[in-house]
């Protein structure tokens, strides 16, 4: 009877590389290229505004098309994965202030914001002053970067689609 051959303690060079690569978290390396810092900032602001990942999926235009599951996975990764969260925060801090302002202007309107806009009658001809007054009366409801012009444009869209209180 021959003695069993002991396995060699050193794996072949190609296998060692494959083993090292497989030890890395798959999700971290998979998402690095697709999720841009602007997407992360937009995702965070949109979720904080709407509290609804499905609404974010349907209403936000990211730099590339993400399905609902990818958006959910990224949101949970930003919340609970310390590595991804750290990298994303560092990248978002490096965004130019103008880029941040542009991203913040794309944030979805919350239901509370739309309820306030809803009260402006469809038969009235509101001016920018009307919406500016609305901003001053309800600073706790409106997203901080909202302008009177942004409110007016959104109100016009709501009117166009018959979403105002006094429309049928």
TrEMBL record:
- What Gene Ontology terms describe what this protein does at the molecular function level? G-quadruplex RNA binding
Domain Microspherule protein N-terminal residue range list: 34-168
Question: Which terms in the GO cellular component ontology are assigned?
Answer: Ino80 complex; MLL1 complex; NSL complex
* GO biological process entries: positive regulation of transcription by RNA polymerase II
Q: Where is the composition biased (Pro residues)?
A: 1-14
Where is the segment annotated Disordered? 1-23
Q: Which PANTHER family match?
A: MICROSPHERULE PROTEIN 1 (PTHR13233)
Q: What is this protein called?
A: MCRS1 protein
Question: Source species, please?
Answer: Aegotheles bennettii
């Amino acid at each position: 009877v021959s003695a069993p051959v002991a396995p060699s303690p050193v794996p072949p060079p190609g296998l060692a590389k494959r083993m090292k690569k497989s030890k890395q978290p798959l999700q971290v390396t998979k998402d690095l290229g697709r999720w841009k810092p602007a997407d992360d900032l937009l995702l965070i602001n949109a979720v904080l505004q709407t509290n609804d990942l499905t609404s974010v999926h349907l209403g936000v235009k990211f730099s590339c098309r993400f399905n609902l599951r990818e958006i959910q996975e990224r949101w949970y990764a930003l919340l609970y994965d310390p590595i991804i969260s750290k990298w994303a925060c560092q990248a978002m801090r490096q965004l130019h202030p103008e880029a941040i302002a542009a991203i913040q202007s794309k944030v979805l309107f919350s239901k509370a914001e739309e309820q306030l806009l809803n009260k402006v009658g469809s038969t009235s001809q509101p001016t920018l002053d009307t919406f500016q007054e609305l901003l001053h009366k309800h600073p706790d409801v409106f997203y901080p970067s909202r302008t009177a012009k942004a409110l007016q444009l959104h109100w016009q869209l709501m009117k166009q689609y018959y979403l105002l209180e006094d429309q049928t």
